[in-house]
Amino acid sequence: MTTHSSTTEVSKEPERSEDRKGIDEITILWISEGMSCDGDTVSLTAADQPSIEDLVLGLIPGLPKVNLVNKVLSPSLGGEDFLAPYRAAVRDELGPFILVIEGSIPNQNIIEGDGYWTSFGNDPETGEPQTLNWWIDQLAPKAWAVVAAGTCATFGGIHAMSGNPTGCMGLADYLGWDYTSQAGLPIVNVPGCPIQPENFMETLIWVLYHAAGSAPPPPLDHMLRPQWLFGKTVHEGCDRGSYYEQANFAADYNSPKCLVKTGCWGPVVNCNVPKRGWMAGIGGCPNVGGICIGCTMPGFPDAFMPFMDEPPGSTLSSLVIKPYGAVVRRLRGMTNELVNHEPRWRHNKRKLTSGYDPHWRA
Amino acid sequence: MTTTEARPTDRKPPQLVDMSWDPITRIIGNLGIYTKIDFANREVVECHSTSSLFRGYSVFMKGKDPRDAGFITSRICGICGDNHTTCSDYAQQMAYGVKPPPLAEHIVNLGEAAEYMFDHTIFQDNLVFVDFCEAMVKATNPGVLARAERTEAPRGEIHGYRTIADIMKAFNPFEGEVYKEALKVSRVTREMFCLMEGRHVHPSTLYPGGVGTMPQPTVFTDYLSRLMRVIDFVKKAVAMNDDVFDFFYEALPGYEEVGRRRTLLGCWGAFQDPKVVDYRYETMNTWGKAMYVTPGIIVDGELVTNNLVDINLGLRIMLGSSYYEDWVNEQPFVTHDPLGNPIDMRHPWNQTTVPVPQKRDFDDKYSWVMSPRWFDQRTGDHLALDTGGGPLARLWSTALSGLVDTPYIKATGHSVRISLPKGDSLPETTLEWRIPQWSNTIERDRARPYFVAYAAAMALQFLEEAMGMVRAGETKVFENYEVPDEAIGCGFHEAVRGVLSHHLVIKDKKIANYHPYPPTPWNASPRDKFGTPGPYEDAVQGQPIFEENGPDDFKGVDIMRTVRSFDPCLPCGVHMYVGKGKTLTTLHSPTYGANHG
Ligand code: SF4
Ligand code: SF4
Question: Where does Ni(2+) bind (chain B) (predicted)?
Answer without folding.
Answer: 77, 80, 569
